[in-house]
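Researcher: Next entry: Branched-chain amino acid transport system ATP-binding protein (Anaerocolumna xylanovorans DSM 12503).
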Amino acid sequence: MNLLEVKNLGISFGGLRAVDNVNLLIEKGQLYGLIGPNGAGKTTVFNLLTGVYRPTDGTIKLDGVDLVGKSPSEICKSGIARTFQNIRLFKKMTVLDNVKTALHNQQGYSLAESFLHLGSYFKREKSMDEKALEILKVFDLDGQAHYLAGNLPYGKQRKLEIARGLATNPKLLLLDEPAAGMNPNETAELMDTIQLVRKRYGITILLIEHDMKLVSGICEKILVLNFGMELAAGTPEDVLNNPEVITAYLGE
Ligand SMILES: Nc1ncnc2c1ncn2[C@@H]1O[C@H](COP(=O)(O)OP(=O)(O)OP(=O)(O)O)[C@@H](O)[C@H]1O
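Model: Predicted structure:
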């Protein structure tokens, strides 16, 4: 069964057709890769899926619900979380609080609870601490829960961003170049963590990555974009052997 159904998606910025007639069907639980050269339209697809941009054409459905026209926060509540190419953490907050902000997104307090610090407030805070720590543990970040996020090494900040996305309890997690700037060891470790997260939480993941070998190692399906258009889609094997992909993407 498809979790995400994107049909004939398109957007123009003035005269530039950044995304043109893109189709994307992602099954529940799938780990899906979105690749393509610089400027191919990958991040724009994420911005369309998350309501940052409204598409000029096409439809986007998550679990059968139409997302076009919804705001980014409504889309987050509908079940899509994302990370960004450039890390966007609350650097002056602790690692734990970064994850808790995402949990707050699901279970807000009433005004009376937060101002008067009623008993229910402390109970919920405790349960949120526990939930946040559980998520941090998956990313091996529980030992640094009380560090300031900005003081974590780069690779761990990237992991914390994913942890925060996960804390919104998404159906679909969008990761924009999660391994950018990481060394090969950190990258390999991150890919293992992504696979573990998918398995443990049973979520669906769409991943942008430049490195085709890396994507093909963990994704079941791949969509290749070039100049905003679909160049190829299929299993990693299909895509890696597609002559058009080899020419356009690998430049061979
Ligand atoms: N808000 C915008 N206004 C005008 N042009 C835009 C806007 N956003 C994206 N573009 C253009 O759309 C095209 C696709 O950009 P996009 O960032 O989606 O590519 P990408 O595949 O994510 O590239 P990269 O791998 O370099 O991140 C580019 O030509 C970019 O300059």
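Model: Note for the record: The mean pLDDT is 89.
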